[in-house]
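Structural prep section.
Before we set up the soaks we want a predicted structure of the protein with flavin-adenine dinucleotide in place, mainly to decide which crystallisation condition to try first. Input record follows.
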Amino acid sequence: MKKFQVVIIGGGPAGAAAALYFKEANVTVALVDKAIFPRDKSCGDGIPLKTFRLLEELGFKEEELFKGGFRISGMSVYAPDGTPAHFGKASVDSATKSGCIPRKYFDNLLFQKAKHKADAVFEGYKLERMTKITSGWLLKLKDIKQGKITEIETELLIGADGAGSFTARKSGLFPVDERHSFEGLRLYYAGKTFRNRVEIFYDKRILPGYVWVFPVAENRANVGIMAPRRNSRKNKTGLRQVFDTVLQTNPDVKEALSGAEPDSSVRGAMLPLGNAPGKRTADHLILIGDAAAFINPLTGGGIYFALQSAKAAARIGAKALQKGRCTEDDLSEYERWYKDVLSPGFYYADWFKRRFASDQFTNRFIKSASRFKPAATFFMMIYGRPLPKRVFWNPLFWIKIFLR
Ligand SMILES: Cc1cc2nc3c(=O)[nH]c(=O)nc-3n(C[C@H](O)[C@H](O)[C@H](O)COP(=O)(O)OP(=O)(O)OC[C@H]3O[C@@H](n4cnc5c(N)ncnc54)[C@H](O)[C@@H]3O)c2cc1C
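Run finished without errors. Recording the tokens verbatim:
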């Protein structure tokens, strides 16, 4: 039976990045994904600037990333009452500069690089069973096309298998948690020239969720919706129906899409949100990306955290492997990293998400962001960045907000 120091389940952004980071640490790596790449993934395709910094660190060039995507220079947010607030490099914050890259292209770029570097790749293999053994995990993989079963062993299992993660469920670390989940849908529109800015529409019927129009090319845009999962249950209306209603009746969304037509089918997925309770490590196991519920509770953005958690897992995991000990205790640095680095930002974003459930608050907030630059800067920071612990107690934070 083949043995690897690290086996990564999932070749999305989290898993592919983890393979690259672990290889930098000279560890033997096997990468497993049930899909054959290029594969599609339901997403807004929005990639913020800070993500590009990590991608460059992994050896990706801006030109190759944007070959399949579109550069964005600003963001417009519409309040439920229609008040717009425009953010852009010139006026507020360069962190609003970002790009939109369809996931079919983006994920394939990452996966192919990881495939090239990994010691073994099981593409089209699904993890069907994981059994704890003294030295790590015994994994049963099923070849999706031929049904053949392959068994491999690892000292350190990395769960990067996305929302509803098999590794999280089977290890008992992280149950699917509806209270801390958004659900999302997206499709593509084509047929008009889109502005090179992302547009976000807060509509009273889906708060604290929103509808977006994210251009992925001059004449093509990703259009989607995300909303709390419990909204569908409470209103007894499926998200698809709500999405259609908003597309047909919200005047700002209609205006943004006028002249364009749907160009793809609708695709949906869950978004496990970053404040979900649970542990992210066990003996010989680390969860990263969506498998660990690392998604910003206000924005639904998770690609940055997928990469960031891959990097932290590789740093901490490689150290544990070097010592020859990967117990939960040996991996506890990862839990501390989550609590110190990611969790405070998720906490603030979650606080805002709960306020944004009220249309009055959202109207007032976006109106003030549209008129008062410090409020806009504050919003962009909450919206686009993981804020450090106790940031609101730090006078420098407020000086930065008011002097920017
Ligand atoms: C509608 C929607 C819109 C979004 N918009 C944005 C956005 O604009 N910007 C942003 O930053 N984030 C966005 N997100 C979040 C983003 O999509 C995720 O955070 C990101 O995909 C996480 O990457 P990941 O690698 O952890 O998981 P994934 O990308 O889901 O990858 C998981 C991989 O694991 C594989 N896998 C699963 N189970 C198994 C198994 N048993 N065996 C083998 N392989 C398995 C899957 O095939 C998949 O390739 C959005 C999400 C949704 C649903």
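Observations: The two ends are 59 Å apart (CA to CA).
Flagged for discussion at group meeting.
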